[in-house]
Design a protein that fits this description.
Helix content is 37%, strand content 13%. The chain is α/β, with parallel strands linked by helices. β2, α7 and β3 form a beta-alpha-beta unit. α14 packs across α16.
C-alpha cells in the first residue's frame, strides 16, 4: 500500500491509509478546522505532481504488479479499491465525526446493503413513515430475503421500545427528519433502546445532511445518506453513502463485502462530482434551511393552508427534540396540507412557476410535488399534501410564487 504522502500533499499526512478508505486516525491529524473549512477545501488535499486543488478523475479499473507479484500502488481492482473514492469518503467521515465511510451507486444501494448484512429470520424495526422506495423494498424484497420487518410509529420512543423488547431485534432503522411529514425521532433515545436490546442503530440522515445533525455523536452505529440529495446538491449525481465510527467491526466488514460483491459501486466521475458538490455543502444547506423556516412561518398563517409540517415550527410535535439534536437550522424540507384537499394540492403544484415540478430534494433549485400521486397505490401520504424542497433562490421570490399560486387556486 502506497503512503498517503505519495499520492497526496496534505497537511500533516492527513489522507486515508487503509486501502483508500476514509480513516479517522489520519483525518484527525488535520488542524482543528471547522466543518465549513473542511468542506470548502475538501480536507485541503492537493494532488501531485502538479498540486492540483481539484482532484484528478481516476478511471483505471485495474492496477499493475511488479514482476514478483507485488502491488506497488497497493490496489488490485477498482470495484472496491478505487482512488476515486478516497477524498470524498475521508471528507464525509470527518464531517460526520466517524472513522470510515463508503460511497455507493445510490442511496438505495447504501440502505439496502445494510439490510443485506442480516440473515433470514432476523428482525428489523423501521418507521412507518420513511422514504417510500426503501419502505417498499423492505416490505417486499426484504421480506422475501427472509427478514422479519416490523414498523413502529415515528417519534414515539415508547412504541419503539415496546416493539424492540417484544422479541429479539437485530437492527433498528431511524429516519429523521422523516419523509414526507418530517417527523422527528430522538436519536439518543433510540440509541439507548438499541443498546438495551443489543441491536445496531442505523440513521438515515439525508435531510440533516451532516450540517444539522451528527447521529454517531448521539449514539448511532451507522449513518446513511442518499448523497444524491444535499451532499451533492446539484441534480447531477445519483449516489449513496454509509459512515461508521467502528471500521474494524464485523458489520462494517460485511458491508465492505456486500458493496464489493454486489457491485453497487459509484463511478469515478460521479465520485468527483459528489466531492465538488460537497465543497459548498454548508452554504447551500444553511441557505435552504433559513428560507424553509421563513416559508414555513409565512404559510402557517395562510388561509389556504390547513397545516405546515416543518420541525422548525414550535407547534410541530417533534420541535423540542429537533431543537436538541439539530444545530444551525431545521432543514430545507417542508410539506403543506391544503384546506381544499387533494384537488387543491394538485392545483397548487400545477400553478407554481418558479418551483420545478420534479421528484427529488436537496438541490439548488426548489422543487414541489404532490407526493401521494408520485408514490402511487398504497401510499400512506395524505392526498392533500404537497412536498416542498427549498433551494437557494431568493426567499422572497419563492414566497411570491407560493402565495400567488395559492391565490389563483382560491379564486377559481
Amino acid at each position: 500500500m502506497e503512503g498517503a504522502c505519495d499520492r497526496w500533499a496534505m497537511p500533516k499526512d492527513s489522507g486515508p491509509r487503509d486501502e483508500g478508505q476514509a480513516d479517522a486516525a489520519s483525518a484527525s491529524a488535520l488542524p482543528a478546522w471547522r466543518p465549513e473549512t473542511l468542506s470548502a477545501q475538501g480536507l485541503g488535499w492537493e494532488a501531485p505532481p502538479f498540486q492540483e486543488l481539484a482532484p484528478p478523475i481516476h478511471v483505471a479499473t485495474t492496477y499493475a504488479r511488479d514482476a514478483d507479484g507485488v502491488l506497488p500502488g497497493g490496489r488490485v481492482y477498482a470495484r472496491d479499491q478505487s482512488p476515486a473514492f478516497d477524498q470524498v469518503e475521508a471528507l464525509l467521515a470527518r464531517l460526520e465525526g466517524g472513522r470510515s465511510a463508503m460511497v455507493f451507486a445510490s442511496g438505495m444501494a447504501a440502505a439496502t446493503a445494510v439490510f443485506q448484512t442480516l440473515g433470514p429470520g432476523q428482525r428489523v424495526l423501521a418507521p412507518r413513515a420513511m422514504y417510500w422506495a426503501l419502505r417498499g423494498w423492505l416490505l417486499e424484497q426484504g421480506v422475501a430475503w427472509g427478514l422479519e420487518v416490523e414498523l413502529y410509529d415515528n417519534g414515539r420512543l415508547d412504541d419503539l421500545a415496546a416493539r424492540a423488547h417484544r422479541a429479539p431485534t437485530h437492527l433498528i432503522w431511524v429516519e429523521t427528519p422523516a419523509n414526507p411529514g418530517w417527523e422527528i425521532t430522538d436519536i439518543a433515545g433510540a440509541a439507548a433502546i438499541a443498546r438495551a436490546v443489543g441491536a445496531p442503530l442505523v440513521v438515515d440522515s439525508t435531510v440533516a445532511a451532516t450540517v444539522h445533525t451528527q447521529p454517531l455523536a448521539l449514539g448511532a452505529n451507522l449513518v446513511m445518506h442518499s448523497a444524491t440529495k444535499y451532499l451533492n446538491g446539484h441534480t447531477d449525481v445519483v449516489a449513496g453513502a454509509l459512515v461508521t465510527g467502528e471500521p474494524d467491526g464485523a458489520t462494517w466488514q460485511r458491508l465492505r463485502r456486500v458493496r464489493s460483491g454486489g457491485g453497487a459501486i459509484l463511478g469515478s466521475f460521479e465520485a468527483w462530482l459528489l466531492l465538488r458538490g460537497m465543497r459548498t455543502l454548508h452554504l447551500r444547506v444553511r441557505a435552504a434551511s433559513e428560507s424553509a423556516g421563513a416559508i414555513a412561518a409565512r404559510l402557517a398563517r395562510h388561509p389556504g393552508i390547513a397545516e405546515v409540517l416543518y420541525p422548525g415550527l414550535e407547534g410541530h410535535p417533534g420541535h423540542a427534540v429537533a431543537a436538541r439534536q439539530m444545530r444551525g437550522g431545521f432543514g430545507g424540507m417542508l410539506s403543506v396540507r391544503l384546506r381544499g384537499g387533494e384537488r387543491a394540492a394538485h392545483n397548487l403544484v400545477g400553478e407554481l412557476r418558479l418551483f420545478k415540478r420534479a421528484t427529488s430534494l436537496g438541490s439548488t433549485e426548489s422543487l414541489a410535488e404532490h407526493r401521494a400521486a408520485v408514490e402511487g397505490p398504497g401510499s400512506i401520504c395524505p392526498p392533500d399534501l404537497v412536498r416542498l424542497s427549498i433551494g437557494i433562490e431568493h426567499v422572497d421570490d419563492l414566497l411570491s410564487d407560493l402565495e400567488t399560486s395559492l391565490d389563483r387556486i382560491a379564486s377559481r
